[in-house]
């Protein structure tokens, strides 16, 4: 196989790759012409190729994109190889990937004008030790998403860092089979968000200094909805007390400052063995999607949610009533004694009357001295009845563990 | 046709590659000619005079591309026919090529005309391939560009105004952003309804579809919808607006298109109001929401994210995401009037 030698700065090394052909490692340095070199390399790459970006700052004015399968883009470390888009002139992402079996590792993307790294419609994508950052602190002018796989299958995010996104630092949307682990999300509106997705494991992560730490959401009107089977465990969601800086209109703009974990309109979600505390408003909120929609196929309520074995720290001491009405309702109902866990209690009308099926009931158990507040819809609407319950034992039950999310990580 | 020998040769070459080395990636861009002149599409390249067998065509409603003039040509291998599926782009036989030169003709002012790039869509055995050839400064030929190109230049607007522009010729992947539906490359413009217009030919005026039928490419009885030109001020406002959104947005904002993650569908056939953007909340817009709640607020263009993004020149906000560095003032006016009318 011939390999096109693009310039003398390219060091083309041929390696024998198993199975078929030669693969090459191309090494690109941060020179004046780096954009042209990287983008040509990304287009002309052959499956199996590695594109290595050396240490240094690559100043890029246009967005990069990869559409060749089985390619690895690697740097020499997330703090060594920096793709700097501060002066970006065109393109809605820093880097976009649309091909299968791609590994991104050991580099960072800074100050993209839109999203930092968007991966769309891909089977098998790995982000290893990748960092996305807006370096000027949390600001509404920052791009929406840091790590942004969407409509993808088999998504691994491991050892990554996401800082400063004006929507979500690590955002996985409309995807299937997802692992987010050993990563850190800081100073984003949402630290880690799993949205309209199926089968996700989120573990060993740290979400801190965000507005909301970890979000499991489902939204209407999208090609994939009905998010389900999400496990959030062994994470620390601590001190997420950055004021919400999302531009209005965005769904995360309604997240109050100081929220540890929010589950909205998903089913089969298991939240366990996490450490959640020092969040101004509430440690965990389980809520219905409350905006209007014409989408008849959409189910807006959370169901089959299990919360167990978590350790809760201090919360609710400084609730943020400026965003949405969650904090205000919670504050009013609790008379200021804010709980660790809030459930809005909303279920379909038939279930308000007849009760929920057992398998759909929320289970809250074995969470130490955690406190809860759950709205009683009938009591909330009618006078003289209790609008909410504070009795955590009402939600006691036997946990049915969800299956581990697994896929071949060695593609 | 002798002139196309070379052209056929690499179509053949592509098919050989497929047979002999199926493991080699299909990334055969470097196998295409390095210069536009090598194709032999034009008898006078600089003046864009095509050879016999290469036919000019035009669209009812074109995509806005920074006020460039677009010179379109089509080559269909001799004796071949086009396939027709109602409301879809014509199905072109293998070997067909759509040729589009982006230029500033500068007919309203003192600047010379400037050819910027010529894009080719070539239907090969492996499907459509998109190529961009960027014109040299001497305007003698255009060279294949892989990673795109930035052209800093100046042109004269229709009002005679001199405008500076950072024109971006797209890279190969950016071609796919718009031209790919469900991961398959496809032309966008030549849908029957978008070809249904009268055009000035050397032989006189003729409906373009009838002309193609006379060439033996299509059946003259094909049925097509009539679609207004969005530029036609006598046409109905809603038709004009939908025609505009269809050609400027609908190739990505359609199920299976590159913007389908948003659930905002702007293709001509979309009839669901929320999906069309009416009182639809943004999904992944970030700061591109402009602090507004909905894509379209009927009667209130200033509260509509769609217009905010059409007006913006910020790469993190602007729509379309690529293909323009300027705002389309006429399009903005049209969509403003349309939203006001809703």
Automatic annotation (TrEMBL), chain A:
Pfam families: Beta_helix (PF13229). The keyword Nucleotide-binding does not apply. This is Parallel beta-helix repeat-containing protein. Keywords: Signal. Residues 81-217 form the Right handed beta helix domain. Residues 1-23 form the signal peptide. Gene3D superfamilies: Single-stranded right-handed beta-helix, Pectin lyase-like (2.160.20.10). InterPro entries: Beta_helix, PbH1, Pectin_lyas_fold, Pectin_lyase_fold/virulence, SO_2930-like_dom.
TrEMBL record, chain B:
InterPro entries: SO_2930-like_C. It comes from SAR86 cluster bacterium SAR86E. Residues 1-21 form the signal peptide. This is Repeat protein (TIGR03806 family). Keywords: Signal.
